[in-house]
Structures are given as structure tokens and as C-alpha cells.
Amino acid sequence: MSQLSARRARILPVIAGAAVLAAATVVAAQGASAAAAGCRVDYTISSQWQGGFGASVAVTNLGDPITGWTLRWSYGAGQTVTQAWNATVTQSGSAVTAVNVSYNGALATGGSASFGFNGSWTGGNPVPTAFTLNGVACTGGVTPTSSPTGGSPSPQPSGSAAPKTVRVFWLKPTDVAFDQRYPDGIAAVMREAQSYYRQELGRTFALNNTVVEVVNGEHDRNWYITTNCTGSDHYWCVVGNMHQELMRRFAIGNPDSRWLCVGLISAEETNQSGGGASPGWVVLSGHDADGAAGVNGPMNRWYGGMVHELGHAFGLPDSTSTDGTPMSASFYSYPNTHFSQAQKNAILAGLYGGFLS
Question: Is position 1 within any domain?
Fold first, then answer.
């Protein structure tokens, strides 16, 4: 997570300043070659018998080429996948996740991949009604991720965004391949933080059904790192650019009374890019995303760090000393760190205290 220093206090003015710069450059950055995302899914029950069935699924990529895919859907009648081929299929409750295997992950525009599975059922076996591919809803059409006319692009939420929830985004630049470890790992960190807040406060925040919304970024990593910077100081550039893109594309305020938002981007300049939080927002760069995915350091650091940054998003300042609370460097000792009673009171009385139940 971000370094504990006075620099965190700069996040609000820096982000606000970036909004002016972004407004001046966004039209020039958009063009007819804007990235697009879209998909179509054909789900067919190929055979059915008492208590069991076979199914085949064909997924067609209608957007820009992808190098790997994850298809998700949910069953509404208690069906269970028992065996699959041409994809790795897992299930948690009603939620099913199918991930490409080594030979069918790359899908060009218009390209398709198929897989099959056997399953069991009890009361019924209706066909699922909604699918997402790499976090994008499969509607049979294409949604632009930027507008060639310079207008406001359509948002691409990969799941529902219920009010008074913590809404989480992973922004993937155009030159970063999709990797399922990232949305899965970020979701695990958020669930851990959710459990910690319940332990500490006796109540906690809600997450959406699709915990992490995967956003295909409009630019490559270098653009996020170097654009809208002041001189050689790139500390806030990458997260400031992500923040502005998420707010614009999803029509989110800073802060926003509907959601408390968390954004992570897989981009940073080594030892130059950072992140932090302010009321209503957590914005984090590449090393945090890597850590959540399990590829950068021990997990207690990332668990404690998210608890710390969420504390800022709920309105808490940094502690003035290493005092055993997660608002100080004591977050590195997670889970052996605890909010003070004053911090608990401040969270519950703050702008987002009503989100906790």
C-alpha cells in the first residue's frame, strides 16, 4: 500500500488538478481505433436425464482481441457442474467460473471458443440468463471503451453496483494481459478487510455480487504513468489518471454518496508511483495489484494495507505515531492491529458510516 508519509495529504488536490488536465487531453486521446469489448454466448443443453445433464458453451468475442478469457454465470435452480472439458470450470454456490485452457485462450475479434461439461440437477435445469466474459456483460453487442466522437463513453460494469456498497475496480491497461489471479486476489483482499471491519466494529461494509469489476483501460501503461504529471514527480500520476478515467466512464463522483470506491491499476513506475486514499476513494497502483494477486510479498501486508486505506476512505487520518492501530505503520503487523475506540467512533459517525451494517 502507499507509503506512510505526509504525501498522502496531497491526494485530493493532485487528483482535482488532474481533472483539469484530463479534460484538455481526452478528446485528443480518443479516436476511431478506440478499444471495444463485447461478447455472445451460446449455451446448449445437449442431453438431459433424471438428475443429470450435458451442456456445451460457445463464447464469441465481439470486441478487440484478447489473450485469455474467463466466463462467468450463475445457476438459478441449484445445478452443479461435475465434469468439464476444454475449459477449467469451478463453482462456488450458484456462481460458475470457466477459464480457458492453454490452447484456446486467444480470441481474435469474431473468434470463438467452445467447451463442454456434465452437471447435476434436482428441481429443474433452466438455461442461465446472464454471462460475463473477462468481466464484461455478454449482450451480443459491442460497447466502446472510449468514444470516437469525444462524447461520454458507455460504462462497462461487470456486475451489479448496489447502493451503499464498496465498489471495486481493477483497471487493466491495453498492454496488460488479462490474468484471473488479479480479480480473484483483489476480491480475496476485500473480503478479508470486510471480515476485519466486522471484527473491529461489530458491523461491516457490503460488497457487490461481482466483487471486482474488470475495466479494460483506454491507454497503455506508459500513458498512465507519464501523462498529467508535474515535472519528474510521477508518484500520483498513475493513480490520478486511473481515478479520472473511472469517474468519467462510470459517472462516479469524488466522493460519491452511492458508493465507496476502490480502484487498482496494473501500472506503475518503480519507486515513483504510489497510491493512497481520501474520503470515498482508495486508489492504488501496480505493486498493490500484484500483492493482492499473490506475486509481491506476504499477504498480511496487503490485507493490513487495504484495511489502512479503507480507513482513510471512511474518513480517518493517519496516526501521528506507530500506535498499534491500522492507521499507523502497525498495519504491517496485521492481524495484530486494532482500531482505537476514537477511530471506531469516527468511522461510524463519518460520511460513510451508514454503509456499515
Answer: no
**Degrees to nearest 5, angle at CA 327 with 326 and 331:** 35
Query: Closest Cα partner for 71 from 83, 53, 55, 59?
Result: 59
Identify whether residues 221 and 307 lie together within a single domain. Answer: yes
Cell of 208: 457487490
Q: Which domain holds residue 67?
A: 36-142
pLDDT at 164 over 60: yes
Helix, coil or strand: residue 233: strand
d(C-alpha 94, C-alpha 88), whole Å: 16
Residue that has been written with the C-alpha cell 508519509 in this structure? 5
Whether 298 is in a domain gets the answer yes
**pLDDT tens figures, 248-304:** 988 899 999 999 999 999 999 988 888 899 999 999 999 999 999 998 888 999 999
**Do residues 45 and 24 share a domain?**
no
Strands annotated E in 86-235: 88-92, 95-99, 112-120, 131-133, 136-137, 142-144, 165-172, 207-216
State whether 97 and 230 are in the same domain: no
Same-domain check for residues 21 and 53:
no
Other Cβ atoms closer than 10 A to 69: 22
- Read off the pLDDT of residues 107-138 as tens digits, 9 standing for 90 and up: 988 889 999 999 999 878 888 888 888 888 88
Say whether the peptide bond before residue 335 is cis (omega within 30 degrees of 0): yes
Residue positions counted in the chain: 357
For residue 245, the one-letter residue type is E
**Domain CATH for 179:** 3.40.390
The C-alpha cell of 172 is what? 487493466
Widest pairwise Cα distance in the chain: 69
Domain check: are 162 and 279 in the same one?
A: yes
The domain boundary residue, chosen from 82, 116, 142: 142
Q: Which residues contact 10 (CB under 8 A, 6 or more apart)?
A: 236
**Distance separating the N- and C-terminal Cα atoms of the chain:** 26
Q: Which of 88, 118, 142 is the last residue of a domain?
A: 142
Q: Please provide residue 213's backbone torsions phi and psi, each rounded to the nearest 5 degrees.
A: -85, 120
Grid coordinates representing 113 are 471458443
27 and 60, same domain (yes or no): no
